[in-house]
């Protein structure tokens, strides 16, 4: 199964969850657009235990840690959704990680979320909980629904807030696939623990 990982914003936990999902499914991993360093692919590589996952090189590695449309402009690169084709792999499972939040622009008219739409790929939404995150999450949900994008479910990352989680699930209609706690350290053991839990919900 192929999944596209998006989020309600930058630093919501997409890369950590992508790693957990790759561990759970022994899936290949691909980050089409990397803007700035360190590379998310390196994080995934450092925290996986399985020996099956293939880390597919990015299509674009941009130097500036900024919105892809701006980072591409600085590097004199043109990003267009139609130029992105899913990589060929023998693995039946592929995890594709987006850049930033769902509505991060890749150019003046297209957004990151246009990629899974053109591939007809289901999305998993990662939401971190903070003051204002209900609004940001439900706005993202609304846009995903407006675009008729398939959504497998939602992942909550960070300190738990049962009230926020409950109201988000109520209004979105999505299922919660995983709750990732605020861990003191992220290592292979932690990734394996969450991967084992996630398997039951996919």
TrEMBL record:
A Gene Ontology cellular-component term: cytosol
Pathway named in the protein's UniProt entry: Cofactor biosynthesis; biotin biosynthesis; biotin from 7,8-diaminononanoate: step 1/2
Keywords: ATP-binding, Biotin biosynthesis, Cytoplasm, Ligase, Magnesium, Metal-binding, Nucleotide-binding
E.C. code: 6.3.3.3
Active site, UniProt feature: 31
Classification via InterPro entries: DTB_synth_BioD, P-loop_NTPase
Main location: cytoplasm
Main function: Catalyzes a mechanistically unusual reaction, the ATP-dependent insertion of CO2 between the N7 and N8 nitrogen atoms of 7,8-diaminopelargonic acid (DAPA, also called 7,8-diammoniononanoate) to form a ureido ring.
Protein name: ATP-dependent dethiobiotin synthetase BioD
């Amino acid at each position: 199964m192929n999944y596209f990982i998006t989020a309600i914003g930058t630093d919501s936990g997409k890369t950590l969850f992508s790693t957990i999902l790759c561990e759970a499914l022994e899936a290949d991993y691909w980050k089409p657009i990397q803007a700035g360093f360190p590379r998310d692919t390196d994080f995934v590589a450092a925290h996986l235990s399985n020996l099956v996952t293939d880390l597919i090189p990015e299509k674009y590695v941009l130097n500036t840690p900024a919105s892809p449309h701006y980072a591409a402009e600085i590097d004199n690169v043109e990003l267009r959704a139609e130029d992105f084709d899913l990589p060929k792999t023998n693995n039946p499972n592929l995890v594709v990680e987006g850049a930033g939040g769902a509505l991060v622009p890749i150019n003046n008219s297209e957004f990151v979320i246009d990629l899974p739409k053109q591939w007809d790929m289901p999305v998993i939404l990662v939401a971190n909980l903070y003051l204002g995150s209900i609004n940001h999450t439900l706005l993202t949900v609304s846009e995903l629904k407006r675009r008729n994008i398939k959504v497998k479910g939602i992942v909550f990352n960070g300190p738990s807030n049962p009230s926020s989680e409950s109201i988000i699930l109520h209004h979105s209609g999505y299922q919660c696939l995983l709750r990732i706690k605020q861990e003191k350290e992220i290592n292979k053991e932690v990734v394996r623990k969450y991967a084992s839990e996630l398997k039951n919900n996919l």
